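[recover] target loaded
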């Protein structure tokens, strides 16, 4: 898929190869070092999990935007909710962004040899955590 690979291309390819093996649908923008996986959980619908690979191929960031939207009146409760969830769950940190949307993030170090397994494992953990968070948000 990639020719004359830069380090970021090698890790991106390792991850997308693993997604293909697991038959997980995704979209990729190799020139930007981005892979998106769209998921439906039990308690959320059509949320994108966006992987952004650093140009040196040694790390990535996973961002999950627009999990939920809060009104200005709900902000104080939203911050408290995020604090509770951050205390409860490892691996993924939650915050309310400038658009008052619940967002999740994690960062990890990788190599081309570990990228497929690490990214896939953290994707599954993130999906499970987001599902749990959405359940608690709706309770």
């Amino acid at each position: 898929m990639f020719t004359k690979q830069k380090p970021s291309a090698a890790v991106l390819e390792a991850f997308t190869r693993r997604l293909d093996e697991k038959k997980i649908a995704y979209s990729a923008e190799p020139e930007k070092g981005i892979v998106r996986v769209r998921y439906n959980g039990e308690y959320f619908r059509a949320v994108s999990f966006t992987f952004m690979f650093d140009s040196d191929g040694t790390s990535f960031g996973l961002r999950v935007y627009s999990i939920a939207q809060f009104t200005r009146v709900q902000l104080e409760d939203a911050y408290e909710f995020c604090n509770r969830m951050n205390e409860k769950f490892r691996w993924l940190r939650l915050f309310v962004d400038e658009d008052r949307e619940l967002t999740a993030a994690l960062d990890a170090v990788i190599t081309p040899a570990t990228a497929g397994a690490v990214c896939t494992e953290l994707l599954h953990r993130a999906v499970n955590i987001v599902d749990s968070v959405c359940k608690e948000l709706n309770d």
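[recover] notes: The radius of gyration is 16 Å.
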